[in-house]
């Protein structure tokens, strides 16, 4: 049987805080969809554990600020491999 939503959200939050993981990498790690990770961390966790929510929110905001850099680096790697 699956674990309660509160436990899953807290485990994901702790994982993301400790590793600085992105939503995609957390989804891969836990074997669930990106949508579920995002919903758990941005909506459910806010109700269950506001302190943990504020900490994970900082990681999510940082990842959002850096995503254009990650995209640029991925494009650079893509074209470096073609040569």
Give short descriptive properties of this protein.
83 residues, mainly alpha, single chain
Task: Describe the overall structure.
The chain is built from 4 helices and no strands. The chain has 83 residues and is mainly α. It has one domain (5-82). Helix 2 (23-30) packs across helix 3 (34-48) and helix 3 (34-48) packs antiparallel against helix 4.
Write the layout of secondary structure elements.
Elements: H1 5-19, H2 23-30, H3 34-48, H4 50-82
Helix pairs in contact: 1-3, 1-4, 2-3, 3-4
Count of individual domains: 1
Q: Count of DSSP E strands?
A: 0
Q: Classify the beta-strand content into a percent band.
A: under 5%
| Count of DSSP H/I helices | 4
Distance between the termini: 49 Å
Rg of Cα set: 15 Å
Low-confidence stretches: none
Which structural class should the secondary elements be placed in?
mainly alpha
Query: What is the percent of helical residues?
Result: over 70%
Please give the largest β-sheet: none
* SSE pattern: HHHH
- Mean pLDDT over all positions: 91
Globally, the shape reads elongated
Task: Characterize this entry briefly.
By secondary structure, the protein is mostly helical. It is 86% helix and 0% strand.
């Amino acid at each position: 049987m699956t674990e309660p939503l509160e436990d899953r959200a807290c485990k994901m939050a702790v994982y993301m805080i400790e590793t600085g993981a992105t939503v995609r990498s957390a989804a891969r790690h836990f074997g669930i969809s990106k949508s579920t990770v995002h919903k758990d961390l941005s909506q459910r966790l806010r109700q269950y554990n506001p302190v943990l929510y504020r900490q994970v929110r900082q990681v999510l905001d940082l990842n959002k600020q850096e995503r254009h850099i990650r995209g640029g680096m991925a494009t650079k790697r893509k074209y470096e491999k073609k040569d």
